[in-house]
TrEMBL record:
InterPro entries: MFS_dom, MFS_STP/MST-like_plant, MFS_sugar_transport-like, MFS_trans_sf, STP/PLT_plant, Sugar/inositol_transpt, Sugar_transporter_CS
Protein name, entry field: Major facilitator superfamily (MFS) profile domain-containing protein
UniProt KW Membrane keyword: yes
Residue intervals passing through the bilayer: 20-40, 81-103, 115-131, 170-192, 198-222, 283-305, 317-342, 349-369, 381-401, 422-444, 450-470
Main location: membrane
Cellular location(s): Membrane
Membrane disposition: Multi-pass membrane protein
Natural source organism: Gossypium darwinii
Amino acid sequence: MAGGVIAIGSGSEQDFPAKLTLQVFICTAIAAFGGLMFGYDIGISGGVTGMDDFLLKFFPNVYVKKNHAHENNYCKFDDEYLQLFTSSLYLAAIVASGGASLMCKKYGRKPTMQAASIFFFIGAILNVSAMNLPMLILGRLFLGAGVGCGNQAVPLFITEISPPKFRGGLNICFQLLITVGILVANCVNYFTSNIKNYGWRISLGGAAVPAVILLVGSFAIVETPTSLIERGKKEKGLKTLKRIRGVDDVQKEFEEMVRATEVANQIKHPFRELMKKPSIPPMICGTIIHVFQQFTGINVVMFYAPVLFQTMGFGSSASLLSAVITGTVNSLSTVIAIFTVDKAGRKKLLVFGALICMVAQCTIGVILKKYLTETSKVPNSIAKVVVLLICVYVNGFAWSWGPLGWLISSEVFPLETRTSGYFFAVATNMLCTFIIAQAFLSMLCHMRAYIYFFFAAWLIVMSIFVMAMLPETKGVPLDEMVERVWKKHWFWKSFFKSSDIERPKAMVQLEHQEKPNH
């Protein structure tokens, strides 16, 4: 992973001539199907875990509890193996993202995305043909390998091919396709839930579709110029850069890429660089943003939306339809971020989004505390209000913490630690997702309605952190992030020398070599 580069920026980044070409648009759209794979799995998991045929075959104890007349509403789905079905994917994703970061450097972003699609396809086949729980979990592990490779390579790929002034909006296409994947999965679950015996197989097998689209489409996209240059293919890198920028005058940007990759390639131990004092601020902010993203509680809603709605007394079909509604809100609301992130700024969206989510979570908690006892059902009118509040919550997340977690973590690291730092961000996201997925149903059983206040408390903490500790990165060129952001922050500036940061020797030596002799 040494010497990897996520994106190239400079103090004159905005002067690079470039157009938003059809080639870039097509490459982004195809690559973003890696996000659709991820989103489809998030949405499909909660749907099939509410299907009786699926539970009867793999989790008979949960089936009995679910259909027991006097079973505790909050505990009917509390089963460690059912939670493992959902969460096992993310353990595999953590391991796979590490391997994917090495693969991205050695072989390129494009082959890594192809590997992601192959892993995901194998996982879908294993799941659709699963005859027992071990086979089902094995399929989940292959899906996890696909998610890990995709989440490492796709944002990296989109960032590197995007013209600087369009980078923010194009990056969010990855998150947009995640939400579309969730919506598609919810729709599939709604229609397959009434198909006896094998409806769940159709739902799980549907994961193969975005995998095939990404695999086939990957043969039509280009490798990123940065990846080509860092692997010694400068001539091909220059040709590709002209093609994706839509102009011939790319020499300035090309030279900046060459210079940056030469510097980065001389850093043989980027993980050691992350342990140095100047690397601590971006390391903390770039990773904790993913901790906070998961502890908003969003994946509780996305994973287990049908389960939550059934807990409140909805029937199976009604709960799936409600999940479709929230999935639609999620997709449409993400579009807001594409058009506002480079105008309003990152911090404002994060704080206002957290505020909306917190109010919605607290209100839901109060309602369920009052109306949902261990054995009673929530009145129909109140249940509809809860669905509306969940839509409000999803809306607040979709244009703030959802897309900005991935965007900010790709911006804050300096060049020499950007790939290694981004790996930690992805791994942190997967680890926290695993923790939430594995623990939620047990937490719901023991904490009941107070689970919503638990996540609301986290939203308060993260809002305070964003206001006090997270610097604004809107409009700041990547290579000026240290000078204009970190060294001017009231707290983080203490991690840097007063005159300059302690740059790696390789960077100093390279700059010395480039100075003209007089």
